[in-house]
Amino acid sequence: MKKLIWLLSCASLIMILTACGNGTASGDNPQSPGSAEVPFMIPTVEDAARPASTADLNLQQQLFMQDLDYMLEVLENNFALFDAAFWIHGMDIRRSIATLQRQVADNPGMDEDDFFAALRREMSEHGAVGDLRIIEPFLHRQNRNVRDFDMFRYEHVLNFYEPRYSDGPHDDWARADIILGLGEGAFLGFIERAALMGAYEVVEDIIAAREIGDFDTARDFIVYALGITAGTPTIQTDIIDDGRIAYMAIYGGGAMGVANQRKLEFYEEIQGFDHLIIDLRGNPSPFWENFRQGVFRPLMTPNERHSVSGFGFTPVGDRHLESVLEDTRNGRMFVTSNFTPGGELLSVSEIIDNFDLPELMAEDMERMDYAFNVHFTTITPRTDDEPAFDGKIWLLTGANTSAGANKAAFFSKELDFATIVGETSRGGWLGPRVWVALPNTGIMFSFDTYYITDSRGRPLEAGVIPHHFNMEGMDALETALALINQGEY
């Protein structure tokens, strides 16, 4: 098994663990690693191989190469989902780094803006697993003053990001630039979500302008699409068959909140119906807690507490995990709605020997050193005499069902809350996060630190497999309606 390499030499890798935008610093106040030398070289895949020698590269190219080597070394030794990213979504991190190295070698005139654009484009596909992503200027600006985020204030990090803050009237201009720079898969994901949320006419203009290289026009249309989706009601309700089948689509986490009176009114309206279909296909929201409060609790049988547990694995050393577990035992841990480590810190073999994990990927465990039990959540229904709706509940999932919506699908299946129909969800879990600054350019990237599984060993980043896949020639809603009419629940 690989051991964690704490890069605390001149390069001073300082890891700041966060959960959903909050966290605590690990270690003393760091110094800027901007002048550090990166003393290693990582082999890359053959068909996208870097140059055999960097002797002919200019100084700027060599600095970019060092940053890429540093990034790969950090990920190989700290990113628990490094291998899983490939079999879950076909994302080969080594190949992506090697592709970037080739681009650097082939472009002696590449500057920091070109390098940043290449990083964004090549790594944009990887954000679907473990939130591995390049930090954008608008996100840096939002977090630079957070007390514990020292790395955001490194001198060489500030020197890179501050000149690149958007001068646009609002963040939508910055987001539009990011969207234009995405890899093909991530770009099409945005297009699909925008279409689902009402911008279906505009997305054709975006695609057409992007294809001919008219990026100014494409950006204008993206800003317009962002405005449309921001104004789209985040809950849409419908009566499909009066007295029998109701439908509710949820497009964002804010819509899930218990404060949204429309949901509760709709539950009242459909009392006595046989079926409620909840559509999460266009929902990438991170806000699982709002789903728990606004959907689970009102619709579950009162006075029944429900708990869900699983396992966590990590290559990260015992110093951090022992501290987290000790803080948990003494009530000092920052509480998140994602999971809480429990029990003792164990070896991977102890977990495998003592629990039945038929869906655990043995290959993924080769890079892990530690394991622990995980308590995900306890759901306590409302104390009312009856649930707000007591008919059959269906949940529709798809490729854009991620983060908090993925959690909703996971708990729905674990607790038999709903019958899930559609496609395997996108995945995503949002655990404690690491921020890393590249030693030369100051460009930052982030990733989640743990490999979290359900009670059978399936990683939650792999998404939730539905009870029923889409029938041939039908989408999820049509399939659910066909199952209802066939009496197959």
Can you characterise this structure?
By secondary structure, the chain is α/β, with parallel strands linked by helices. It folds into three domains: 16-167, no CATH class; 171-231, no CATH class; 235-431 and 450-486, 2-enoyl-CoA Hydratase, Chain A, domain 1 (Alpha-Beta Complex). The strands form four sheets. Strands 4-5-6-10-11-15 form a six-stranded mixed β-sheet, sandwiched between helices. The chain has a four-stranded antiparallel β-sheet with strand order 8-9-7-14. Strands 3-13-12 form a three-stranded antiparallel β-sheet. It has 16 helices and 15 strands. The model is unreliable at 1-49, 255-259 and 331-338 (pLDDT under 50). It is globular. It has helices at residues 59-78, 84-89, 93-106, 112-123, 137-143, 155-161, 171-180, 184-211, 215-231, 253-256, 261-269, 288-299, 318-329, 348-354, 404-414, 476-486; strands at residues 16-19, 22-25, 133-134, 235-241, 245-250, 275-279, 306-314, 340-346, 370-379, 392-397, 419-422, 433-437, 444-448, 451-453, 468-469. It starts with 15 loop residues before the first strand and ends with a helix.
